[in-house]
Design goal:
Elements: E1 3-7, E2 14-19, H1 26-30, E3 38-44, H2 48-61, E4 65-71, H3 80-92, E5 101-105, H4 107-119, E6 126-130, H5 133-139, E7 144-149, E8 152-159, E9 164-168, H6 177-194, H7 196-210, H8 214-234, H9 249-258, H10 266-283, H11 289-301, H12 313-322, E10 326-327, E11 330-338, E12 341-348, H13 349-358
Parallel strand pairs: 2-9, 3-4, 3-5, 5-6, 6-9
Antiparallel strand pairs: 1-2, 7-8, 10-11, 11-12
Helix pairs in contact: 3-4, 5-6, 5-8, 6-7, 6-8, 6-10, 7-8, 9-10, 9-12, 10-11, 10-13
The chain binds nicotinamide-adenine-dinucleotide and zinc ion.
C-alpha cells in the first residue's frame, strides 16, 4: 500500500507517491503521464549499483527505453559542466519535447537533473525518484532546481515543477544513519513552523522513524511534503510565506560556510540554527523556555547536534552578511512565536551574537 498526495498547482499539479517497493512499480506509475517512451535516468555512482537495475527493469517492463547518465556523488556534479554532458547525451540521441528526465538519487542528483529538464529544449517532463530522506521530504517538492557556480551554491537555477515524485521508502535502508538524521532535521522544522500536532507526533515516534518503521516513515514523508507543498502553493516564487521554510537556515547556512562545508551535513547545521533561532525568540520573550527544551530534546533523540561550536564571531557575521539577509545591521530571521508557528522578524546582529554566546 502506498500513500499518495496531490500537489495543487493548477495545470502544473502533480502526484507524490510514497511507500515501500515503489521503484518496482515505476512503469505503471508513469502510465497516466503524457510522456514519450524514450527517457533519461540521471543517477550517481553510489545510488546506481543499489537501485538502478530495478528502475531500468520496471521502465522496460512499462515499454520505456531508458538512457542512463551516472555522475560522481556529491556537490561537484551539480555543475554546468556535468549538465552540459547530459545535454550532449540527450541531443545526440535526438531528444524530443515529451522525452522525460528522471532523477534517481538524493537532492544533488535531483537539483542537477531538474536543472537539465528545465532547460533542455526549453523544458522536458521531469520525474523525481528521491532516495534520501532529505530529498523525499524537502528537495523533491517545491520546484527549485539548480547547479552550483564557483561563486556559490545553487546560483544558476530555475523554478521548475516535476510531473511526478515517487518516494520509495525501501531505498532509505541503505542510507547512512547520519543522512537519515540530517533529513529528520527538516522534518522537525515542519513541525516547528507549521504544525504543533505533527511536532507532537514526532516526539512520540522519533525512535521508530530512526528504526525505519514503514508506517511512521510514510506518515513523516507525506505530511512533510504536504506542508511544504501547501506553503509553496501559496507562494511559488519565494516572496514572503515561503521564507518561513528558512527557519534555522540563516544561522545554519552561515555555520556551513564558516566550517567550509566540511563539518556538518546540511540538516545538522539546520538543527543548530533552529536551536539558535528558538533561543533568540526566548531572549525576546516570544516563547516559553519549554519550547526550547522540547526542541532540544527532540533533536538530540534524532541524533542531531544542538550546540553551537566555537566559531570566530567576525567570520560568522561575515557569512551571515554574504547570505544576503543582512540590511543596516539587521538580519531577517524566522523566529518561533509558539509551537507550530513562526514569524519573520528583523533582529539586530548584536542579538545574534548574544544568542551565540549563550549557547
Ligand atoms: N531544490 C531544493 O529545494 C533543495 C532543498 C534542499 C536541499 N537541496 C539540495 O540537495 C542537496 C543535498 O541533498 P542530499 O542531502 O540528498 O545529498 P546527496 O544527494 O548528496 O546524497 C547524500 C549521499 O548519499 C548517497 N545516497 C543517496 N541515496 C542513497 C541511498 N538510498 N543509500 C545510500 N546512499 C545514498 C549519495 O550518493 C550521496 O553520497 C544539496 O545540493 C542541496 O543544495 C535542494
Ligand atoms: Zn534545508
Amino acid at each position: 500500500m502506498a500513500g499518495k498526495l496531490r500537489v495543487d498547482l493548477g495545470e502544473r499539479s502533480y502526484n507524490i507517491y510514497c511507500g515501500k517497493g515503489l521503484l518496482e512499480e515505476l512503469g505503471l506509475l508513469l502510465e497516466p503521464l503524457d510522456i514519450a517512451k524514450r527517457c533519461l535516468v540521471v543517477t550517481d555512482e553510489t545510488v546506481a549499483p543499489l537501485y538502478l537495475s530495478r528502475v531500468i527493469q520496471s521502465l522496460e517492463a512499462g515499454g520505456f527505453t531508458p538512457l542512463v547518465k551516472q555522475v560522481p556523488p556529491g556537490e561537484e556534479a551539480k555543475s554546468l559542466k556535468v549538465a552540459s554532458e547530459i545535454y550532449d547525451m540527450a541531443l545526440e540521441a535526438g531528444w524530443e519535447r515529451r522525452c522525460p528526465v528522471l532523477a534517481l538519487g538524493g537532492g544533488t542528483v535531483g537539483d542537477l537533473a531538474g536543472f537539465v529538464a528545465a532547460t533542455l529544449l526549453r523544458g522536458v517532463p521531469f520525474i523525481q525518484l528521491p532516495t534520501t530522506l532529505l530529498a523525499q521530504v524537502d528537495s523533491s517538492v517545491g520546484g527549485k532546481v539548480a547547479v552550483n557556480h564557483p561563486r556559490g551554491k545553487n546560483l544558476i537555477g530555475a523554478f521548475y515543477q516535476p510531473c511526478l515524485v515517487v518516494a520509495d521508502l525501501s531505498t532509505l535502508r541503505t542510507l547512512p544513519a547520519r543522512e537519515l538524521s540530517s533529513g529528520l532535521a527538516e522534518v522537525i522544522k515542519y513541525g516547528m513552523i507549521y504544525d504543533a500536532v505533527f511536532f507532537t507526533y514526532l516526539e512520540e515516534h522519533v525512535e521508530k522513524a530512526l528504526e525505519q518503521k514503514e508506517e511512521v516513515l510514510e506518515k513523516i514523508v507525506l505530511r512533510s511534503c504536504e506542508i511544504k507543498a501547501q506553503i509553496v502553493a501559496k507562494d511559488e516564487r519565494e516572496k514572503d510565506l515561503r521564507a518561513i521554510l528558512n527557519f534555522g537556515h540563516t544561522v545554519g547556512h552561515a555555520l556551513e560556510a564558516v566550517t567550509k562545508f566540511q563539518v556538518y551535513r546540511h540538516g545538522e547545521a539546520v538543527a543548530i540554527g533552529m536551536m539558535m533561532a528558538t533561543r533568540m525568540a526566548l531572549q525576546r520573550g516570544l516563547i516559553s523556555s519549554e519550547i526550547l527544551k522540547r526542541l532540544e530534546k527532540l533533536l538530540r533523540r534524532a541524533s542531531l547536534p544542538v550546540e553551537m561550536p566555537e566559531v570566530d564571531i567576525g567570520s560568522f557575521l561575515e557569512a551571515l552578511i554574504r547570505d544576503k539577509k543582512v540590511r543596516d545591521g539587521k538580519v531577517r530571521m524566522v523566529l518561533p512565536v509558539k509551537l507550530g508557528r513562526v514569524e519573520i522578524m528583523e533582529v539586530d546582529t548584536r542579538e545574534v551574537i548574544e544568542a551565540l554566546q549563550r549557547s
